[in-house]
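hey can u check if this looks right to u? its 290 residues, i copy pasted from the old doc so theres a chance i mangled smth
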Amino acid sequence: MRRALGRLLGLAWFLGLSAAALAEEGPGGIRWQPETVEPGGILLLTVRGVGPEGVRGSLGSTPLAFFPTPDGAAALVGADLELATRALPWRLIVRDGVGPSRQLSGRLPVRSREFPTQQLTLPRDQVDLDPQTLARVEAEAARLRGVLEGRTPGRFWQGAFVRPVEGRETGGFGLRRIINGQPRSPHAGFDWAAPAGTPVVAANTGVVALVDEQFFPGRLVVLDHGLGLFTLYFHLEAVEVAEGEQVSRGQRIGRVGATGRATGPHLPFGVRLAGARVDPQALLRLPLPD
């Protein structure tokens, strides 16, 4: 029986199929939701019949951080918006406490995704930063990056994430601006236009990891939801939480503004998962366990 299952899993890997379809019924059975991913996408991997201590693994070069569920364990996995591959290899080692450890592996198909570009021509004095401002921007980016590279053990979030503001969707995730012929980093957030002062709420339960005022994003809040998952809220008119404070899903954390480099009041909402820049809309759509 075990030998037959091994042959089936090997065939699934060869064909590029998800092993979930073959193994999800028994202890240690797995399931990917969804079964393919695209740049900026996010997935939920569930493993049945074993707790977090009984499974470890990786997707590509990223270790998976598992948390308990009513019938086993699960992990959230993000694909960076600039991911450039047709498939991601995954590997799991499952120990159910009955027999020897099982090793499962496969390749997760990556769908192509086209992001928009925008060509802009601006006066150089609106684009090039003076040395003092450039030094400030680099220091602020390093401070933010240091926070987002953390991975707090255990999860704080519970259930589905909620949209952080009531407003008009203007999108923008993945948009790459080409200014004066020079490509800039793609936009890693999703934007909502809303009047200044509109309440901004926490998308889920977490801990305030950073409150800051920076040159480009203006007043900002970063929430740590545990296990390498963060949400970011930029250009705030006002911040109503402090670093280290625990907040609940739907709790007010600030108000929409236009601080920093912004053309008008709006909320750019960002998501980082183990360093991957994830489409916030993908996280909001994902069915997550309580």
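The CA atoms of residues 37 and 110 lie 5 Å apart.
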